[in-house]
User: Fold this.
Amino acid sequence: DTGVSQNPRHKITKRGQNVTFRCDPISEHNRLYWYRQTLGQGPEFLTYFQNEAQLEKSRLLSDRFSAERPKGSFSTLEIQRTEQGDSAMYLCASSLGTQPQHFGDGTRLSIL
Amino acid sequence: QKEVEQNSGPLSVPEGAIASLNCTYSDRGSQSFFWYRQYSGKSPELIMFIYSNGDKEDGRFTAQLNKASQYVSLLIRDSQPSDSATYLCAVAATSGTYKYIFGTGTRLKVLA
Assistant:
């Protein structure tokens, strides 16, 4: 049983560029969550999918952010026109129903 | 008032001692509580979850929940240097998304 997989592990980009992250949840987990974590803080919720439906987006998720989960399997998180404040660890978690969430290793984004 | 509060620490304990980590939450309707361990630069790892008032033990870890006082704690017995990490308390939202609301984490240092 493989865990939650996230790619890439690290992304360094220039301000203004677009970036896309991928998350492969634990197989058969129907719920998928994206969180963002900055230094010294706990993870903050960004968005939630149940199967392929995106059911909630945080106010933190500006218009520059978009997430998809086609066919209810893997998910992508895209950030357009990146800004310095987007630098963070982006974490994906999955769960089967309301069972505890398991996190991937995260994608660390650095904006130059 | 933050929704989930933890003392940021660091909490320093000698090797072999009991480490006690505390967390309070504001939503009286909360039902599900989780403790994650996070090593520096790594993603959160689930170590305990508790849903009912009282104690829940798993190896060297004991989670304690008091819903009347809106308080959840984690005890680590026989602390080891490898337990040195940040411990994140998470509370599941009472809305249908079941997203987690995290505290800022408590940094634990176990001194050899």
